[in-house]
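User: Could you walk me through two proteins back to back? I'd like the raw sequence and the structure tokens for each, with a short line separating them so I can tell where one ends and the next begins.

Assistant: Of course. Protein one, sequence then structure:
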Amino acid sequence: MKRIFKGPLIWIVVAVVGVLIAMQFLISSGGGDEISASQMQEYITSGEVKEITFVDGDQVIKATLDDSVDREGGREVTTKWLTGTQAGIEREAQEQAADKKIEKVTVEVSRPGLLSSFIFSFLPIILLVVLFLWLMNSMQGGGGRGVMQFAKSKAKLISKDMPKTTFADVAGCDEAIEELGEIKEFLQEPARFQAVGAKIPKGVLLYGAPGTGKTLLARAVAGEAGVPFYSISGSDFVEMFVGVGASRVRDLFEQAKENAPAIVFIDEIDAVGRHRGTGMGGGHDEREQTLNQLLVEMDGFDVRGGVILIAATNRPDVLDPALLRPGRFDRQIQVDAPDLAGREQILQVHSKGKPLASDVKLISVARRTPGFSGADLANVLNEAALLTARNNLKQITNETLDEAIDRVIAGPQRRTRLMSEKEKLITAYHEGGHALVAAALPGNDPVHKVTILPRGRALGYTMVLPDSDKYSQPRSQMLDQLAYMLGGRAAEELVFHDPTTGAGNDIEKATAVARAMVTQYGMTERLGAIKLGDSGSEPFLGRDIGHARNYSEEVAGIVDEETKKLLTTAHQEAFDILDENRDVLDSLVLELLDKETLDKEQIATVFIPLRRRSERPAWTGSPDRRPSELAPVEIPQAIRDRAAANGYPYANGTNGSKPEEGPGAVVTPPGPDGDIHGDPVLGGDSPVPPTPGSSGPT
């Protein structure tokens, strides 16, 4: 709409309205000399009026005086009558006309002026035209685009005046930075690559979980490239009219080719690049035409270089295969959640400009945030800064950062929720059961915090975090996690003899882990190493419809039995551990009721007398596959030193569990008890760690 007001149309409308107003005044100004009503009546009574006209509606009397009347203002006079006087003046005029003293008496109805006639006649049409233009402008997403530019590209050209993001502002994804940095180098020094016959990739696809920095990487390329950079969202191509998206794709690439070398960035490309001919309805004409045009522009018959396409998506599995083939997206870069070193680098980037206390160590914050994406870490530091300002502090402390992490994981603390003493006691035993079972089993990660303060949707929670990043889990650890997840339910049964609804989320997650062990990972002896079910064949049918079951009803019954067996065994194991350590559980509950929140060191003090379970016996899935008695090869010291320099010391065990006695690991043959641990062993000086977000707040 701003474009309309800046153009000549508004001045033409103002000029026309001005002319009409002037004409209205000129026409109305020629009505004669105005006199009083009493003087008009005297003229009529004395017979000095030649012609008279009554204008109904305007309450005006117009008269032409006789030639014998000599007055300075002329013989044309007008007056306005007051309400109730019209009848007397009109009767007097009719009598004078009957006596032939007034030649002509007429009565007129007032007619609207030229301006009012124009307004009432053309204003509705003008309003309809303006409304139509506004609707067309709104359908295009605004931006001051005219109707004739409806099919033009809506890409934004990144100018030099916009705030720059560089690779120095990106951390935690070194491989992606290296790959994209190569594109920048090719644009700046193409001769170095062409000398060895290298061709720059035509397309680069960035894919990964939300919040890992895909769009931030694209902004960094825009800041570093030094060439025209066009940015557009995948949804900007799709309109209600078929063919508009394809036209916009053509216009976008025409602009980019005219300014080549150039970079085009399409965010959320899955909005337009989905697999053709899929879905419940069989496809989408507008999106498929847009995709066809995009395929042609990237690598079609008319091949002109100089345009590099960078795209980002969270769903690479739904993209059309023709879009992903070499020659279009030659390079596909996965942007994962950062590891420990990456999280520390991200925290360093986002901590710039934030006053940190001298005792704050970002590496400690990175260790407490495994699995966090770059967006999550940025949110942690921002929440810490907000809490610092709210409490009128000058620096961000460890306590503020700890609260910020809790807020990001579980939500803000619900200080207004008042719990009865009975509910608080039940919550303390529930969370204490989680923490104690986690600490008693060797495959769990360390317990970092236990609290009975309500936060988010939870009445309390136990935070169990690994000391280092993990990318796979052995079966024994998953069994320990099942017992840890059901520790809260077992504590309620042991102490109060009546479980509550607080374990609902624990049971849900434990069931999901147990079913995955049976159907995905082949971790049961009865079914063996077999994948049951197909969860990725039809991503377009929805989460539930797309999960095809490729096994019989008999096998489905066995799956349910094995899942129940795993859960029942874990439940009983958690119950037995709590029964053996009832004194430690009661001590932990008393500490929770007193302090409400316990940290890692306080928990370790309570768990000094804890009776821990030993390692589980070896499991191969069959009595015929006996494990080797030979230990794994000893890791060379050079590799140990290199790993330690990168923050992953082998001294802490190859799987992040308790320290090993020596090189390799001792393998115990399968025992008669199957998955159950051996006899409990009295704990040493330090507690053995428990599990993270797998159970989550309860």
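----
Protein two, same layout:
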Amino acid sequence: MAGDATPVALVLEQDLHLRSRPSVYKDPNWRGEDSVDWEELRRDTDRESLEVVLAEHPEVRELFTWTGRVELGGVNPRLHVLLEAVVENQIRQDDPPEVKEAVFRLQAMGFRRHAAIGSVAHLLTQHLFPMLKERVPFNRELYIRQLHLLGRADLSKVGRNDPCPCGSGRKFKKCCLAIADGVTADPRAGTLLLGWGSYTLDPDAARADPLLAQMENRVAIAEFMEEHGRRALALRYLLENVSCAEAQGERGLLVNSLQDVQHFCLDHPAHAGLGLKTIDRLILLTEDEREKAALRRDREAMLAAAGRRLRRRKVLRKLSGARGSQS
């Protein structure tokens, strides 16, 4: 490493196995996402570990290559992916070996592997942010001690004079009491939720169901893409939800996903053809006559918008032809 490397970059290379260069962090005090060279950080992250994580979060792959700031629902999805990739790297490197031991222990308790990875990543986050903000060195010993606690006991029920759950043989108050806060193993850990409300009004229900979380995420990402002028990409995300709902065979999910496509097409008359087909599907799926009547009104509005757009195009072609003949 170069002699002018920041402590943060050194820690990431030596202990977190991100192998990032010093220039990754433009501002040593790291004020947020804008201070990170995402292209370089992504290039220097172990590709295999990154792909393992992206397989768990396929809906964010496009965001991970996005240039510029990305934050949805108060969550930075790229940082979420990178932290889990760090944990995957630590397992592959077997350094520290306590990471793999903690993941295996949580899996033996019934955790999904990704939830176990997420629990370790949550613990790692508590070390990473102070490092980036305060430039303090990575406390490897403390990290390892906390890894020993993951999944061993409900620390809130451990008495001060009880044996420490980490297995040191010392009393809890003389061992890990001071570091017990925030050491949690959650079966929902690792679940990325960028928004909710399209498929459930209960965020906890979305976090408990990875498929539901992915569908909510696609809606949030579609809105993000639409806001940034990437309409085709936004529509692709919404159509992926339709395919997902069809594969699940759940009528409620299918209706919700088709409604998202319908609303998108109503806002963008260029997609009127798809919008009309979507409304026709919704009419067949709907039993309530009032809802069918509302859908038929939407159909008429979409036809009218498509007609206006077609007339405008004809006028523009005529004007273009007139200009061409004059020249």
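Confidence is low (pLDDT under 50) at residues 1-38.

Let me know if you want the two compared in more detail.
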